[in-house]
Design a protein that fits this description.
The complex is a heterodimer of chains A (367) and B (323).
Chain A lengths: L1 H27 L18 E7 L4 H14 L3 E7 L2 H9 L5 E4 L5 H6 L4 E16 L7 E2 L1 H9 L8 H6 L11 E5 L4 H13 L1 H6 L12 E3 L1 H11 L3 E6 H6 L6 E3 L5 E2 L3 H11 L23 E9 L1 E2 L2 H15 L16 H11 L3 E2 L6
Parallel strand pairs in A: 1-2, 1-3, 5-9, 6-7, 6-8, 12-13
Antiparallel strand pairs in A: 3-11, 4-8, 4-11, 9-10
Helix pairs in contact in A: 5-7, 12-13
Chain B lengths: L1 H10 L3 H37 L1 H7 L2 H4 L3 E2 L4 E2 L2 H32 L2 H16 L2 H28 L14 H25 L3 H9 L4 H12 L1 H17 L2 H6 L17 H8 L6 H40 L1
Antiparallel strand pairs in B: 1-2
Helix pairs in contact in B: 2-14, 3-14, 5-8, 5-11, 6-8, 7-8, 8-11, 9-10, 11-14, 13-14
Classes of the chains: A alpha/beta (367), B mainly alpha (323).
Chain lengths: 367, 323
C-alpha cells in the first residue's frame, strides 16, 4: 500500500511537471500575448497607441514614448519588445497600431496583410565584428574574408589573407572560434545579409534570414550570450549590435567598405551609410543598406522601421499615429544620439515624410 | 473518547444521509479534478498536432530522421535536437544518480543527526534556484572551468575514447550535462531520502542481527526495499532534465549537429523552440518548431511509459521474491 502510494505520487508529480515543462516550452516562448488596442480613447481623453516588435529598438521606443508623453499629453505610446518576427505577425493580425522591425517585411508577408503596409524608417543601427585576442590588437576585416571565416574556410588568425590586411599587427597562430546568435534575430539578418552581398558562396550555401544553418561555430543566446562567449574564449570572433558593443566596451574591428576604406562602426559612419544608399532606396523604402557606397559609410548597417497600415480605420487614432511618426522622424531624432543609435540622414527623413503623408483615414477621405 | 464522539455523531438523526451526500460530493469533486488533468494532456497533444500539421505533412517521418535544420531553405530535421536532449539528460543522470543517491543514503543512514537538517535543507534549496541563474553561472563559471581545466584533463587521460576528443570551447554537451546534473540532484536526493525513511526499523535490525556490516545493511536490506521509489525519483529527475530549457540553451552551444565528442556544441529540442520561435516568420517554420514540441512531448511520454514498465516489473519481482 505504501509503495503504491509513494510511486503514484511520484507519477503524479512527474506527469504534472511534464505538462508544465511542455506548456512552458511551447507557450512560454510563444509569439507573446496579442496586444488588444483600447477602443479609440473614447472614455478617457488619451489616445493609446500600441506597438510591438523589434527588441533592437526597444530602448529607443521607451525613450520616445516617455518624451512624447510630455510633448503631446493627449497621446500615450505603449511598446512591447517581442522580436521583429512577432511584430510583423501582430501587424498582419491587426492587433497593434504599429509594428517595429529591423528586417523589412517580405513580399509574402505583405500579401498576407492584404491591405498596404508602409515601412517608415525611424532609426539606424549596425552590427560589428567583435573578437577577443590576447593584447587586444586593432584588427581590420574585409567582407569576403569575414564570409570565409564564417564559412569555415579561414580557420586561423594568422591566415595570410588576414595578415595581408593587417600589416604590423602580430596575429597569433590560434584557431578562430566563430560565435553567432542562436536565437532568431534582426542582428543576424543584417550580418548575413552583408555576408551574402560580398560572397556569392555565402549567398548560395547559407542564405539570408533571421536564423540560418551556420556552417561553423558556437551559438550564444542573445547579444549577451555571444558577448559572454567571446570575452571568455581567446581567439573568438562573433558579431553583436553596435549599441551593445559600445555600451559594454567590447573590442570590435573595422570593416572595409565599397569605397575601399576601413571603417569602424559608429553613429556617424552608420548614418553615412544611410546617406550613401539614399539615392538607390526603392519607393516602398524596404531596403537593405549593407555594403552601401559612399565615403565613410560603415558597410554592416541597417534601418529599423515602424510598420503602419496606409489606410487607418479610426480618425482619432490615425491622426495620433501620424502625429507621433512625424515627431519621431523630426524632433525625436534628437534623442537618438545619447542612446548610441544612429540618426536618420536628411535624405531619408525626406523619404519618410513622403510615406507618412500617404497615411489616410479610410472612412473620412483624407485627414 | 474520540471513537465515542464519532459514534454519537453518526447516531444523530439524518447523519447517514448527510454522510452519503458528502461522500458523493467528494467523489464528484475529486473525479472532476482528476479528469481535468487528462483533459489538459489531451488538449496539449491535440493543439500540438493541429498546429504542426503543415510540417507533419511536408516532412513525414523524415522530420525525426533527418539532420538538416535550415530555416532559409525551409528544411527541418529534428534528429540532432533529439540527440542533444537525450544525450545531455543521460549525462546528467549518469552523474546525478550515484551522487544524489549517495547524499540520500548518507543523510538517512550515516549522517550524525546535527548535520542532517542543514545538508537536507541546502540540497532542497538547489531545487529552488531559477534556471536562468544556473545558466548564467554556467556561462560565467562552469564553461571556463570546463574549457580550461576539466576538458584538457579528460582529453589527456581519456583522449583515446572518442567521447573526449578535440578541444572544448567551454559550452557544449558536457557543460550542459553538468548543469543538468546540479539541477536534477535535489529531486533524486529529496525523494530517495523520503523513500529510505520509510524502510522499517525491523528490516535494518534484522540485518544487523545477522552480523552484517553497515555497508551490507544498506546494500542488502535498505536499498532493495526502497528500489521502486528510488527508480521513481530517477524518472522524475529525467523528466526535469528532458524539459529544461533556459539553462541548457545558455551552455549547450546551440549547434544542431551530432558528434561523438562531448566537448562539441549540440542543441536540444526545448532550446531550439525557445531560441527560434519569436522570429519564426513563415508558416512552415512555425509549424516545424511546434512539431519539435510534439516530438518532445512524445519522447517524454515514452520515457514515462518506460518508467512505469520498469516500476511495475521491479515491483512485481519484489512481490514474487517475498512470496
Amino acid at each position: 500500500m505504501r509503495r503504491f502510494f509513494a510511486s503514484s505520487i511520484v507519477k503524479a508529480v512527474l506527469a504534472a511537471s511534464l505538462i508544465v515543462a511542455i506548456a512552458a516550452g511551447v507557450s512560454g516562448c510563444g509569439p507573446g500575448k496579442p496586444v488588444t488596442p483600447e477602443t479609440g480613447g473614447g472614455a478617457g481623453n488619451k489616445v493609446k497607441l500600441n506597438g510591438a516588435g523589434s527588441t533592437f529598438v526597444f530602448p529607443m521606443m521607451s525613450k520616445w514614448s516617455a518624451l512624447y508623453d510630455s510633448v503631446k499629453p493627449g497621446a500615450q505610446v505603449n511598446y512591447q519588445s517581442i522580436g521583429s518576427g512577432g511584430g510583423i505577425r501582430q501587424v498582419i493580425a491587426k492587433t497593434v497600431d504599429f509594428g517595429a522591425t529591423d528586417g523589412p517585411m517580405t513580399d509574402e508577408q505583405l500579401q498576407e496583410a492584404k491591405k498596404p503596409v508602409l515601412h517608415i524608417p525611424v532609426v539606424m543601427g549596425a552590427v560589428v565584428p567583435a573578437y577577443y585576442l590576447p593584447g587586444n590588437p586593432a584588427i581590420r576585416f574585409s567582407g569576403p574574408m569575414l564570409a570565409d571565416i564564417f564559412l569555415g574556410k579561414i580557420t586561423k588568425w594568422n591566415d595570410p589573407a588576414l595578415a595581408a590586411l593587417n600589416p604590423g599587427v602580430k596575429l597569433p597562430d590560434r584557431q578562430i572560434v566563430v560565435v553567432h546568435r542562436a536565437d532568431g534575430s534582426g542582428t543576424t539578418y543584417i550580418w548575413v545579409d552583408y555576408l551574402a552581398k560580398v560572397s556569392a558562396e555565402w549567398k548560395a550555401k547559407v542564405g539570408v534570414a533571421t536564423s540560418v544553418n551556420w556552417p561553423v561555430g558556437l551559438g550564444g543566446k542573445g547579444n549577451e550570450g555571444v558577448a559572454g562567449q567571446i570575452k571568455r574564449t581567446p581567439g573568438s570572433l562573433g558579431y553583436v549590435e553596435l549599441v551593445y558593443a559600445l555600451q559594454n566596451k567590447i573590442t570590435f574591428g573595422a570593416v572595409k567598405n565599397p569605397a575601399g576604406q576601413y571603417i569602424k562602426g559608429s553613429a556617424a559612419s552608420v548614418s553615412a551609410a544611410g546617406a550613401g544608399a539614399a539615392n538607390t532606396i526603392p519607393a516602398d523604402l524596404r531596403v537593405s543598406i549593407t555594403n552601401a557606397p559612399g565615403k565613410g559609410a560603415y558597410p554592416v548597417s541597417g534601418f529599423a522601421w515602424l510598420l503602419v497600415y496606409a489606410g487607418q480605420e479610426n480618425q482619432k487614432r490615425g491622426q495620433a499615429l501620424t502625429d507621433f511618426l512625424w515627431w519621431v522622424i523630426h524632433d525625436g531624432q534628437k534623442a537618438v544620439k545619447p542612446l548610441d543609435y544612429a540618426r536618420l540622414p536628411e535624405q531619408v527623413v525626406k523619404l519618410a515624410e513622403g510615406k507618412i503623408k500617404e497615411i489616410r483615414v479610410s472612412k473620412a477621405n483624407g485627414r | 473518547m474520540a471513537a465515542d464522539s464519532i459514534v454519537k455523531r453518526l447516531k444523530a438523526p439524518g447523519a447517514l444521509a448527510r454522510g452519503r451526500l458528502a461522500d458523493r460530493a467528494f467523489f464528484i469533486a475529486t473525479f472532476i479534478f482528476a479528469g481535468l488533468v487528462l483533459l489538459i494532456v489531451a488538449a496539449i497533444f491535440i493543439e500540438l498536432a493541429v498546429m504542426s500539421w503543415p510540417s507533419l505533412i511536408k516532412f513525414g517521418p523524415r522530420f525525426i530522421t533527418s539532420s538538416d535544420w535550415d530555416p532559409v531553405a525551409g528544411k527541418f530535421g529534428a534528429l540532432p535536437l533529439i540527440f542533444g536532449t537525450v544525450a545531455s539528460s543521460v549525462i546528467a543522470l549518469l552523474l546525478a544518480v550515484p551522487l544524489g543517491l549517495g547524499v540520500a543514503v548518507f543523510l538517512s543512514e550515516v549522517s550524525p543527526p546535527w548535520l542532517k537538517t542543514p545538508v537536507g535543507f541546502l540540497v532542497e534549496l538547489l531545487a529552488g534556484i531559477p534556471s536562468v541563474i544556473y545558466g548564467l553561472w554556467g556561462i560565467f563559471v562552469l564553461a571556463p572551468l570546463v574549457m580550461n581545466h576539466l576538458a584538457p584533463w579528460l582529453n589527456h587521460y581519456f583522449g583515446w575514447l572518442p567521447l573526449f576528443r578535440g578541444t572544448s570551447y567551454g559550452v557544449g554537451l558536457l557543460t550542459a550535462g553538468l548543469i543538468l546534473t546540479l539541477m536534477v540532484l535535489p529531486f533524486i536526493t529529496s525523494v530517495s531520502r523520503e523513500i529510505l525513511a520509510t524502510v522499517p526499523r525491523d528490516q535494518r535490525e534484522a540485518a544487523l542481527a545477522l552480523g552484517m556490516t553497515r555497508w551490507e545493511v544498506i546494500r542488502h536490506a535498505v536499498l532493495p526495499y526502497g528500489r521502486v521509489g528510488i527508480i521513481g525519483a530517477v524518472i522524475l529527475a529525467l523528466g526535469r532534465a528532458l524539459g529544461e530549457t533556459m539553462a541548457v540553451t545558455m551552455v549547450i552551444g546551440n549547434t544542431p549537429r551530432i558528434s561523438a565528442s562531448l566537448f562539441n556544441p549540440a542543441y536540444s529540442m526545448a532550446a531550439v523552440i525557445a531560441n527560434e520561435f519569436t522570429e519564426a516568420s513563415s508558416r512552415l517554420y512555425v509549424s516545424a518548431l511546434i512539431e519539435v514540441g510534439l516530438v518532445l512531448f512524445g519522447v517524454t511520454f515514452l520515457v514515462n511509459a518506460a518508467a512505469r514498465l520498469l516500476i511495475w516489473r521491479v515491483g512485481g519481482g519484489q512481490k514474487r521474491a517475498r512470496v
